[in-house]
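Structure in, sequence out. Go:
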C-alpha cells in the first residue's frame, strides 16, 4: 500500500561553532530487502539533482514499495551552505570517501554517511546534475553494467572512475553502485532523472510497474575531456542543448581573448577514420584506459557549456564519448 516515508537523519555533531550538528535528512520507504539508497546533493553548486529527489519522493508515496528505498536529497549540507563545488574546508567531498572520524569536516561527513549507508543498504545510486552553466548527460559504471544501464535514458561510460568517489568505495565495500549525471544549463526538466531513477528501482525489484524509456543504451568506452588552458570567453556555434547528441568532427568551441578579440585556443573533435585515443584529453583517468582507436562515427557530447562563458586554465569545457557498443536496457 502507498504510504508516507519515515523521516530520520544522520547527524555530524561537534563540527560547528554553535555546536549544532550538520544533519543529513533521510526519507525511508518500505522495509526489508533489497535495500537501495538514492542520494543527491554531493556538490554544493548542483541543486537540480536535489530538487529531482524531492520529486522522486513524491512519486514514491503514490506507489507500493517492495524492500527498502532510502532517499537522501542532500548529502552535503556543508557544501550547499557555501554553494560551491569545493567545500569550505577546500576539499571536494566526492574524493574523500570512505572518510575518517577525525580531521576535516568533509572527511567526517564522508565517514558518517558511508558508515550509515554500509550498515543499511546493498546498492547506492548517486545522482548528480549539471550546474547553471554546464549540462551533463551520462552514467558512470562501476562494474555492474546492467545496473548502470537500467536508468535507460543516458549513455553509460565504462572503465573510468576515481578513488575516493562514493560509488567507487561503495563498490570496494561490496555494494552495487552507479553515478548518474543529468541536466544543467537550460536543461532544467527533472523528468529524465525521476523516470530514470524509477527505472532503476524497478530493476532492483522495488517496483512492479513497467519501465519507461528506450530499449537500448549506448556504452561509451572512449572518452575525451577538453580543458581550457587560457583565460577568456568560451564561445561556440551551439550551446548546452547539444549535450546527449552526436557532435563534430571539427571545432566545437574556442576561447576568445576578451581584451583583443583574438581566438586563443580551439577544442577539436577528432576526424572520423583517423587513429586517435591517446594524449591530452584521453589521459584523465591514466594510461591504463588509453588505447588507440579509429572513430567510425562522431562522439556523443557528454558535457557542454552555456556560451559565452568565462573560463580559466583548468576549466572543463567539453567532454565527448565514442560509442563502442550498446546494451539492451535491463527490464527486470
Amino acid at each position: 500500500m502507498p504510504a508516507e516515508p519515515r523521516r530520520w537523519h544522520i547527524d555530524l555533531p561537534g563540527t560547528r561553532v554553535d555546536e549544532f550538528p550538520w544533519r543529513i535528512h533521510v526519507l525511508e520507504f518500505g522495509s526489508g530487502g533489497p535495500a537501495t539508497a538514492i542520494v543527491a546533493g554531493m556538490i554544493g553548486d548542483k541543486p537540480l539533482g536535489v530538487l529531482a529527489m524531492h520529486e522522486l519522493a513524491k512519486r514514491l508515496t503514490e506507489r507500493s514499495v517492495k524492500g527498502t528505498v532510502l532517499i537522501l536529497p542532500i548529502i552535503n549540507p556543508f557544501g550547499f551552505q557555501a554553494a560551491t563545488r569545493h567545500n569550505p574546508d577546500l576539499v571536494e567531498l566526492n574524493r574523500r570517501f570512505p572518510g575518517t572520524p577525525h580531521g576535516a569536516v568533509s572527511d567526517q561527513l564522508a565517514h558518517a554517511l558511508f558508515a550509515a549507508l554500509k550498515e543499511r543498504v546493498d546498492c547506492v545510486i548517486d545522482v548528480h546534475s549539471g550546474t547553471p552553466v554546464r549540462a551533463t548527460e551520462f552514467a558512470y559504471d562501476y562494474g555492474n553494467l546492467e545496473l548502470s544501464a537500467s536508468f535507460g535514458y543516458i549513455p553509460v561510460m565504462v572503465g573510468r572512475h576515481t578513488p575516493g568517489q562514493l560509488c567507487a568505495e561503495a563498490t570496494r565495500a561490496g555494494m552495487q553502485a552507479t553515478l548518474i549525471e543529468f541536466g544543467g544549463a537550460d536543461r532544467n526538466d527533472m523528468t529524465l532523472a525521476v523516470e530514470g531513477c524509477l527505472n532503476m528501482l524497478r530493476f532492483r525489484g522495488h517496483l512492479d510497474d513497467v519501465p519507461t524509456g528506450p530499449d537500448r543504451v549506448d556504452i561509451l568506452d572512449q572518452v575525451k575531456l577538453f580543458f581550457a588552458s587560457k583565460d577568456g570567453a568560451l564561445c561556440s556555434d551551439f550551446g548546452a542543448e547539444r549535450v546527449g547528441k552526436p557532435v563534430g568532427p571539427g571545432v566545437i568551441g574556442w576561447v576568445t581573448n576578451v581584451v583583443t578579440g583574438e581566438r586563443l585556443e580551439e577544442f577539436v573533435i577528432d576526424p572520423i577514420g583517423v587513429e586517435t585515443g591517446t594524449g591530452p584529453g584521453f589521459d584523465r583517468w591514466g594510461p591504463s584506459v588509453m588505447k588507440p582507436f579509429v572513430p567510425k562515427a562522431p562522439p556523443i557530447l557528454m558535457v557542454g557549456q552555456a556560451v559565452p562563458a568565462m573560463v580559466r586554465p583548468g576549466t572543463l569545457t567539453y567532454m565527448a564519448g565514442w560509442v563502442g557498443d550498446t546494451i539492451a536496457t535491463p527490464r527486470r
